[in-house]
Amino acid sequence: MSAPTVDADPAVLPETLWAGRSRMLMIQETLIGPFLFFCALVTVVTTAGIVLVLGTEAFRFFQMPEVSAVDFFFGTKIEDDPVSPRFGLLPLLWGTFVIAFGSSIVALPIGLLSAIYLSEYAPRRLRSVLKPALELLAGVPTIVYGYLALLLVTPVLKRLLEPLGLRVETFNSLSACLVVGVMVIPMVSSLSEDVLSAVPRGLREAAYGLGATKFEVSTRIVLPAALSGVTASFILAISRAVGETMAVVLAAGIRPQITLNPLTSIETMTAYIVAVTNGDASEGSAKYQSLFAVGLSLFAITLVLNILSGLVLRRYREVYN
Amino acid sequence: MSPIMPEVKAVPNVSSGGAEPLPAGTDVPSTAVLSTRDLNVWYGISLALRDITIAIPRNQITALIGPSGCGKSTLLRCFNRMNDLIPSARMTGEITFEGLDLNSAETDPVSLRRRIGMVFQKPNPFPKSIYQNVAWGARINGYRGDMDELVERSLRRAALWDEVKDKLNKSGLDLSGGQQQRLCIARTLAVDPEVILMDEPCSALDPISTARVEDLMDDLKSEYTIVIVTHNMQQARRTSDMTACLMLDDGAQHGHRTGIIAEFSPTDRLFTNPKDPRTEAYITGRIG
Ligand SMILES: Nc1ncnc2c1ncn2[C@@H]1O[C@H](COP(=O)(O)OP(=O)(O)OP(=O)(O)O)[C@@H](O)[C@H]1O
Ligand SMILES: [Mg+2]
How confident is the model at residue A1 (pLDDT cuts 50, 70, 90)? Predict the structure, then answer.
């Protein structure tokens, strides 16, 4: 027990008390690094593979005699003519834009307000129930939202709007915007709630200490302090709406057109990819190859949006470090 | 323990008379602005403060000292109902502010907090410009005068004007810790409070900034009533007129840490001739 003995006679200590590390542990340690690296590699390689395939196939598409890049990026027509087919991206871009814009009108305000409610107003008990419930919305398969649009939202829209003399088509962008909007609410509310709650309590107390009401504290101190995080959640939600496929196909249909009428059918880039894949386009035909060009464009858009939200979020982190 | 207890319990009654004027001999000429009577505060089921009876004299600096966890911040936060923001906090007893029952349902905590400002331990300027930091509170309280003038006056009052007058549009977060704390004081002064509560305002500051804040407090006490929590005995001694020494109650139920007032006296008396043995032990560094 006494320290001097131990110091004087170190032979008592080592082998009996300290077994040392087993060889197994050493082997584990040398293998674990490469294994983890391999796991990380899988995702990187997959992403690189996707970009590579999309890139080379899109390149082949633009090399085809019946295709011109200018016509693709600036054309307003998609025509399945066997002699001179037209592949204009603009109607698809427009369709995608309509869905992203329309669903944002639904999702951003509702998502943000519920985030403010959850983080600033809701009693802790209620929040611990409400937040997971909201996140559950994100777990509903998107095709369910598609059927919801087709079987519930559109009939209701018809019932409401047709007496006013408006013609509501079975496939229309309005119902698609509504369901996609509801679909991405949890993304906005959950992420925004995280950044709002992360605003230091000291800021809130300072504001309350000056005689601010809860509403003033929430909207004029907490929200501005978390603005970049909230913006990042908006961008992610929009990027999700841009990439949404099944709900949009089922609700908005596949008619490529540039129109301001929300009661008529449109076609988004994702819907085009579904339609062509399911159609009769033979492998190697221009129509088939156009898939990759559209896919690459879509990939570029969502990539830019995601990078943007990452940049915005990073700025937010810098404010408090 | 038993020989100490009765004496301890007697002290608050002797040295502070609740809402009544303080007894003669305490060298306190003015009446109380804020006073509590038999205040108990709970967090959930644990009693954090027991039987607090104290009167904060007008235009003086009152220091709250005592070991960590004895409820100094809790008491301070009762004075402007900041504890309302903590769902588990509950209190019984009476707090009077200028004759107003602080805890009654009619008292609006929002307008009360404008009259009883607070400066926190960690400087917490808003992530806004220096100008906006000062103007914000005044603006939400509907200040209709010349805002530029108010901002300048408040910053001058907080002894910060000369250092920031050329960069009013810079973020308040770009200032040094000491400057940030004076910015927070300026922000509090801008809403024209009657009482300023300070919770260890210098604990994050270097000695020079601390000295500036202390000078400032001395300057402010002609117009304001100041209550300051501090762990720094010298600071309490240097700055305050009255000192309350809080202690953990030995008789509290096992596992609960309950704060009580061991002694409340004029500062020079408390430090030179403490009546309570535990106060003496604390200020000479044997407790806490
Ligand atoms: N929000 C809270 N919820 C639950 N208990 C709390 C809360 N705040 C404080 N307490 C408890 O109340 C007691 C008093 O805390 P308080 O912060 O008032 O002490 P203090 O004297 O200011 O200590 P310090 O000198 O360390 O700041 C402590 O036991 C603490 O654990
Ligand atoms: Mg404290």
Answer: very low
Give the position, in ligand 1's atom list, of the atom nearest the Cα of B75. Answer: 18
- Residues B133-156 have pLDDT tens digits of 999 999 999 999 999 999 999 999
Tell which of A120, A124, A210, A321 to mutate to test the B interface (max B CBs under 10 Å).
A210
**Which of A297, A272, A300, A299 has its CA nearest to residue A72?**
A297
Report CB contact under 8 Å: A212, B140.
Answer: yes
Query: In angstroms, what is the span from residue B263 Cα to ligand 1's centroid?
Result: 20
Model ipTM value: 0.85
* Helices A173-197, A154-161: inter-axial angle, 10-degree rounding: 120
Per DSSP bridges, beta strands B46-57 and B32-43 are antiparallel
> Regarding the domain with residue range A92-316, which homologous superfamily does it belong to in the CATH classification?
MetI-like (1.10.3720.10)
A289's tokens: 């190859």
CA distance A104 to chain B (A): 28
In terms of DSSP bridges, do strands B259-266 and B242-248 run parallel, antiparallel, or are they unpaired? antiparallel
Taking CA atoms only, the protein residue closest to ligand 1 atom 9 is B74
List of chain B residues whose C-beta atoms are within 8 Å of the C-beta of residue A220: 136, 140
Position B271 pLDDT exceeds 80 = yes
Task: Say whether domain B34-283 belongs to CATH 3.30.430.20.
Answer: no
State pLDDT tens for residues A118-151: 999 999 899 999 989 988 888 899 999 999 999 9
Q: Which two tokens stand for residue B171?
A: 């973020």
Using the mean position of ligand 2's atoms as its centre, give its distance from the Cα of residue B252 in Å: 20
